[in-house]
Amino acid sequence: MRTQVAIIGSGPAGLLLGALLDNAGIDNVILDRVDRQYILSRIRAGVLESGTAAMLDHAGAGARMHQEGLVHDGFSLSFAGRRHRIDLKGLTGKSVMVYGQTELTRDLMDHRERLDGKTIYNAKHVTPYDFDDKPYVTYEKDGATHRIACDFIAGCDGYHGVSRASVEGRGLEHFEKIYPFGWLGVLADVPPVDHELIYANHTRGFALCSQRSLTRSRYYIQVPLEDKVEQWSDQAFWDELRRRLPRDVAEAMITGPSIEKSIAPLRSYVAEPLRFGSLFLVGDAGHIVPPTGAKGLNLAASDVHYLFEGLREFYAEKSNACIKAYSGRALARIWKAERFSWSMTSLTHRFPANGEFDQKVQESELDYLSSSNAARTAMAENYVGLPY
Q1: Which domain covers residue 210, as residue numbers?
Q2: Catalytic positions, please?
Q3: pLDDT tens-digit profile of 302-336?
Q4: Is residue 319 part of a domain?
Q5: What contacts 260, CB < 8 A, 6 or more positions away?
Q6: Under the phi-then-psi rule, with left for phi > 0, alpha for psi from -120 to 50, and beta for the rest, what region is 22?
Q7: d(Cα 349, Cα 290) in Å, to the nearest integer?
């Protein structure tokens, strides 16, 4: 088989890239080691920057997002028992869209099927080769080994995928920060406690009130890394969440049995560079952010934006200028998002090693945000997404 672009990974990044390439008449094949249902069973967050939502529209897969997604014009920061609203729309003229990553992935999959796009699920031992010269990808399926010759390889297969592993030892640098806590998250079919997200900084730790729809909520609390999900009953979770929220919010909260419960460690990670000849690292294959700033999925989309620009220019104009610039352009935006995610995490969480001075500085920063329009504007600009 031959194609122009081989895409490894059928998560949001791979599917979005495939849709944009289809629109531009650029042939592509997507490979994934698991099947469609396994991918759609993953529970992920979904706060979309306006740029990400626009890309989904451009791909032709944004209709259901506009029907079912929730437009948020702001969010709240809670500290010292008080709520302070960050008016995203008023400060920047932009909003964000709350739309579950699972639903976005489903939309892109359905769109690809309607266009008869080529996706190979259950492709075992996918391996990229010769990306310095004549790239190709091999995989195993139904007891046979198959080969796909191509011009370019897009590695959209996540942190543990084969794409990044294939470039280890080729000048790849790693930058990482591990946070000393995790998030215990609960998904439940209960109405959200508020129409917008609430980030809470409390003496007992961080909490977040989020949502997936008008009838499904996603809540989180900061927990020690040593905690296990089995230690937390539903009732214990709801009780602890209420303790960390302002009284009026806690009293208004409706609780119910959890659909899903998990603990996610928090860390930041960036790989440099993101281009190795004809192979590109995209999304989680090249970077991880803590979820505090809602940047993970959006950074994957911005990578897709830069890579698609390069591929479109290559095929339409016979120029490789944007392809050569991909890594630098993507990393410039990635590091700004990493900085914002680190800043939001530092602002809203309680760090075990922090002394009284550090705690006073954090409280002063929160107080400054509540009184400074310039500080709120800077936060809002980063939250809605910096321009590409």
Answers
A1: 180-265+352-384
A2: 72, 199, 291, 295, 383
A3: 999 999 999 999 999 999 999 999 999 999 999 99
A4: yes
A5: 43, 185, 186, 187
A6: alpha
A7: 12
